Amino acid sequence: MELVLILLYTSICIVIFKIFRIPVNQWSLSTAVLGGIVGIALLLIGMAYNHPFSANARIYFSVTPVYAGVRGRVIDVPVKANVPLKAGDVLFQIDPRPYQLIRIGALVEMRGGTGYPPYWSRPPSVRAPVANAAPVEAPKEARRRLRRSCG
Fold first, then answer.
1. Which helix (DSSP H) or strand (DSSP E) does residue 102 occupy?
2. C-alpha distances in angstroms, 150 versus 47, 66, 72, 119, 135?
3. What's the whole-model pTM score?
4. 3-state secondary structure 48-71
5. In b/e form, how buried is each residue of 107-145, taking b as 16+ CB within 10 angstroms?
6. Which of 64, 78, 81, 99 has the most CB atoms at less than 10 Å from its CB?
7. Residue ranges covered by each domain of the chain
8. What burial class does residue 36 get, using C-beta atoms within 10 Å of its C-beta: 0-12 exposed, 13-18 middle, 19+ buried?
9. 10, 39 in Cβ contact below 8 A?
10. Residue 55 pLDDT grade (very low, low, confident, very high; cuts 50, 70, 90)
11. 89 vs 48: CA distance, rounded Å
């Protein structure tokens, strides 16, 4: 861009020297050159000063938010970048273990169990009296929790 400005200024100076028949001597030539340097420098400084700038730039792009119906840890993302998707494609998989444990616990409680295995099936280090076990919920409460956890 600077080269274009210098060539444009040079051509304007040549035209002015030819049209107005200004004698080319050391003073007229040095005045034209210094005037051109100052003029182009001021033009470039003004352009740089007025150039848009931001310390906190903002980038705008189109985003489609994806929300899962449940909370959990994402264990797999089987989609590839820049590949179109169809309706029903799996975007990510959530770890099902916490929900399976809640469901199994609710089913056991609904059937009237405590949720613990029988006393003799536990390892010897854990065989303690079951007096500290949590009280068994009423079957209605267990059914309500099961419905809530399974959706």
1. helix 97-110
2. 64, 21, 14, 29, 23
3. 0.35
4. HHCCCCCCCCCCCCCCCCCCCCCC
5. ebbbeeeeeeeeeeeeeeeeeeeeeeeeeebeeeebeeb
6. 99
7. 2-49, 95-118+135-151
8. middle
9. no
10. confident
11. 50
- Residue with the bigger pLDDT between 111 and 82: it is 82
Helix (H, G, I), strand (E, B) or coil at 130: helix
Q: What angle do CA 103, 109, 110 make, to 5 degrees?
A: 85
Task: Calculate ∠ Cα 24-28-33, nearest 5°.
Answer: 110
Largest CA distance in the chain: 118
Tell me the residue type at 41. Answer: A
Distance CA 48, CA 1 (A): 13
Residue 4's CB: how many other CB atoms inside 10 A?
8
Cα-flanking dihedrals φ and ψ of residue 45, to 5°?
-65, -45
Q: What are phi and psi of 75, to 5 degrees?
A: -110, -15
Burial class from Cβ neighbours inside 10 Å (0-12, 13-18, 19+) for residue 15 reads exposed
Mutual orientation of helices 2-19 and 26-49 as an angle, nearest 10°?
A: 140
In this prediction, residues 19-27 reach a mean pLDDT of 92
